[in-house]
Amino acid sequence: MDLNEVLSAPLALLITSNVTVFCMNMYVLSTSQNLTESCRTMVTTFALVFEYFMVFGLPAQLLMDEATSTADIIYQECKWYLPSVKPLRSDFLIMIMRSQKKNCIRAANYHIISNQTVLLMLKTAYTFYTFIQNVKM
């Protein structure tokens, strides 16, 4: 079973819910008069960003980086051109070909999960927040 088949829908739901929570937290921060509530909201927002980055964004980015560097490592380190390694040459070439295919984890088979996803979520939440502020007035 493909990893994208398993994680696609849950990651899309997680992104959607996190964007909604970020937007609500920004609204609470802008309307709150209580310092304790503001601090609690900021800590919650920071924890969500940190969680998403460390649990999803960073490992997915490392997976993509390692997959793309595999071809370079095989080409530079395995000495596949030596005559003594001739029986393995076709295997090395197959590994190089397969590692050049882009590997990624997707949310809803649409958006690639990476470090930039966290920033995109915050940007989207801020966009919704400004929309709510403009509609409210």
TrEMBL record:
<protein>
    <submittedName>
        <fullName>Odorant receptor 6</fullName>
    </submittedName>
</protein>
<feature type="transmembrane region" description="Helical">
    <location>
        <begin position="6"/>
        <end position="29"/>
    </location>
</feature>
<dbReference type="GO" id="GO:0005886">
    <property type="term" value="C:plasma membrane"/>
</dbReference>
<keyword id="KW-0472">Membrane</keyword>
<keyword id="KW-0716">Sensory transduction</keyword>
<dbReference type="GO" id="GO:0007165">
    <property type="term" value="P:signal transduction"/>
</dbReference>
<keyword id="KW-0552">Olfaction</keyword>
<keyword id="KW-0675">Receptor</keyword>
<keyword id="KW-1003">Cell membrane</keyword>
<keyword id="KW-0812">Transmembrane</keyword>
<dbReference type="Pfam" id="PF02949">
    <property type="entry name" value="7tm_6"/>
</dbReference>
<keyword id="KW-1133">Transmembrane helix</keyword>
<feature type="transmembrane region" description="Helical">
    <location>
        <begin position="41"/>
        <end position="64"/>
    </location>
</feature>
<keyword id="KW-0807">Transducer</keyword>
<dbReference type="GO" id="GO:0005549">
    <property type="term" value="F:odorant binding"/>
</dbReference>
<dbReference type="GO" id="GO:0004984">
    <property type="term" value="F:olfactory receptor activity"/>
</dbReference>
<dbReference type="InterPro" id="IPR004117">
    <property type="entry name" value="7tm6_olfct_rcpt"/>
</dbReference>
